[in-house]
Amino acid sequence: MSQPILTLDFLDQATAPATEQLPADVRVTEATHTGRSRRLYIESYGCQMNFSDSEIVSSILFDEGFDTTTELAEADLVLLNTCSIREKAEITVRQRLKEINAHKRRQPGLLVGVLGCMAERLKSKFLEEEQIVDLVVGPDAYRDLPRLIKEVDNGQRSVNVLLSREETYADITPVRLNSNGVSAFISIMRGCDNMCSFCVVPFTRGRERSRDAHSIVREAQDLFVKGFKEVTLLGQNVDSYKWQSADGSEFVNFAQLLERVALVSPELRIRFSTSHPKDITDEVLHTMARYDNVCNYIHLPAQSGNSRVLELMNRTYDREWYLDRVAAIRRILGPDCGISTDMIAGFCSETEEEHQDTLSLMDHVQYDMSYMFFYSERPGTLAARKLADDVPLDVKKRRLAEIIERQQQHSLIRSQMGVGKVHRVLVENVSKRSTEHLSGRNDQNKVVIFPKKHYQKGDYVNVLVHECTSTTLLGNAVE
Ligand code: SF4
């Protein structure tokens, strides 16, 4: 039987986010029904790290008698795990609190709390600014949630935003939320010691600390036994992972950790995020090359293509260093290795020529995908204190549009490199747009869609790709 040929617009629809009221990047916890007395409703905003934290919070509260629900109207406790990376992220949370206030008026006993980076940035000011909020808890204080909820139950609004130099939640088994049962996040470290001048993370997530390597390997083994086929190792800067045993006899850096997790099983795929250009070593690249189950994909934020701007950003590397790291990736992992990045348009005093340097860096690297934003000044950061946010908004937007357009061209070129080749795809789900098709990702983190035949979620399938868009590869399974 010949394979059905899908039209291209099917592809675009297939990767479009499903219809939800909430913004596309917001995730609501799936329900658990174990007959516990109270129900938690948690929304996660922003990065994978925040989502992984919501899994830790759900685990802590599960032990405190909270089931989770996806229905706001059923909740006894509503938690928003917030992001503060850009002004827009905070505006979204304030808007959401207004909507939740409508529920609270109908259900006066409803408890409302805010977690994450915005909670840490605003601290008790959040209570002054948002009357609906009963609870403000920073990223390092989630163990204190049970005590704080008791205080709120007794009528007292509560705050704990203490940052820690030790906390890694290593002993807490996350409740896997919204899980497809195939891929899961493992947080390997917390905080960040870099001080990029535009970034709030060092202030909202504190100093860097690496988690016990053995607890990470145990979590990967546990997930594999439970049928998961892929783990993503998470950290703000995974390349600076370094753990030493209490007696000092054992020291593990990121390359060594990667190897230990890769040895769990050749059937367990390993991804990681986020890398840092100044710290990514050839040792890490050679470890990736040695293990087929470590995916051939690296997220390597550049932020800008101009060395003067990179210095103002306090990124601690320049354009030449960055390109040298990309050359090492291409040399050790080959031209097919997927590379994605973060780019900021219109940073303080960026000139038109310096913007052109960003475009030419993109031409040189040809990224598979990028997260692209215009500069949003964040209170309390080095840039906000020392540098004028002097690039006009219309210029920021025009430069961002040029970066996005360039990226779309490169994404298509990179996708076309996959046409005519066989890709090993890990099936994650039935395609959103057709129950006759499956969706998964290849080694380079590209989405691949193909007719399902007898395959199912969790299978590794060899797919011969015959067509693509800038975001998705289209093919048929080959034995
Ligand atoms: S590396 Fe820089 S941009 Fe990334 S979290 Fe740390 S301070 Fe922020």
TrEMBL record:
KW Signal (keyword) present: no
Localization annotation: Cytoplasm
GO cellular component: cytosol
Signal peptide: none
Record SMART domains: Elp3
Entry coiled-coil feature ranges: none
Gene3D superfamilies cross-referenced by the UniProt entry: Methylthiotransferase, N-terminal domain, tm_1862 like domain
EC number: 2.8.4.3
Binding site residues for [4Fe-4S] cluster 2: C192, C196, C199
InterPro entries associated with the record: Elp3/MiaA/NifB-like_rSAM, Methylthiotransferase, Methylthiotransferase_CS, Methylthiotransferase_N, Methylthiotransferase_N_sf, MiaB_methiolase, rSAM, rSAM_horseshoe
Pfam families given in the database record: Radical_SAM, TRAM, UPF0004
Predominant localisation class: cytoplasm
Physiological role: Catalyzes the methylthiolation of N6-(dimethylallyl)adenosine (i(6)A), leading to the formation of 2-methylthio-N6-(dimethylallyl)adenosine (ms(2)i(6)A) at position 37 in tRNAs that read codons beginning with uridine.
Similarity remark: Belongs to the methylthiotransferase family. MiaB subfamily.
Protein name: tRNA-2-methylthio-N(6)-dimethylallyladenosine synthase
Gene behind the chain: miaB
